[in-house]
């Protein structure tokens, strides 16, 4: 099996177990991560995000499939996370397409793509249905995610 495929399988298998330490170990120290909620995270921010999400996960289930190695560096896969969104108590099923760049046995770039408006509909119910398409609500969720990550890092990652 290709080493890059093994790294991706290790990352998502660890995520299934909410094993953030193994997930973090799959990342380069200079990791660049992006998605529609956290927008852009680098290095320790990206690693801390996975720790925060794993530690706060409720009724969590993850599946992954279709790992495709595009060349020696780039790969994609699909993954689905099902969980209870803690702020509203609503069940979310988020279907995601991941794009990764790997080098020297580590993930160095990771981008998750999904429709934020669909996520907002599930996470916030009628408010998400009515306002989830608006930039105002999307920016509000992004700002809250950033604020939550900063607070988590301040509390948990003191050196």
Automatic annotation (TrEMBL):
Residues 8-110 form the SnoaL-like domain. InterPro entries: NTF2-like_dom_sf, SnoaL-like. Transmembrane segments: none annotated. Coiled coil: none annotated. Gene3D superfamilies: 3.10.450.50. It comes from the Bacteria. This is Nuclear transport factor 2 family protein.
């Amino acid at each position: 099996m290709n080493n890059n495929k093994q790294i991706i399988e290790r990352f998502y298998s660890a995520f299934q177990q909410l094993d953030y330490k193994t997930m973090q170990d799959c990342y380069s120290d200079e990791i660049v991560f992006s998605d529609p909620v956290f927008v852009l995270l680098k290095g320790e921010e990206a690693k801390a995000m996975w720790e925060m999400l794993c530690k706060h996960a409720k009724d969590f289930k993850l599946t992954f499939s279709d790992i495709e190695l595009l060349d020696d560096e780039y790969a994609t896969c699909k993954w689905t996370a099902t969980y209870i969104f803690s702020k509203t108590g609503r069940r979310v099923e988020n279907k995601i397409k991941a794009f990764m760049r790997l080098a020297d046995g580590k993930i160095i770039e990771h981008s998750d793509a999904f429709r934020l408006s669909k996520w907002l509909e599930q996470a916030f119910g009628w408010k998400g249905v009515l306002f989830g398409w608006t930039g105002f609500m999307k920016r509000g969720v992004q700002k809250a995610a950033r604020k939550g990550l900063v607070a988590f890092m301040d509390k948990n990652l003191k050196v």
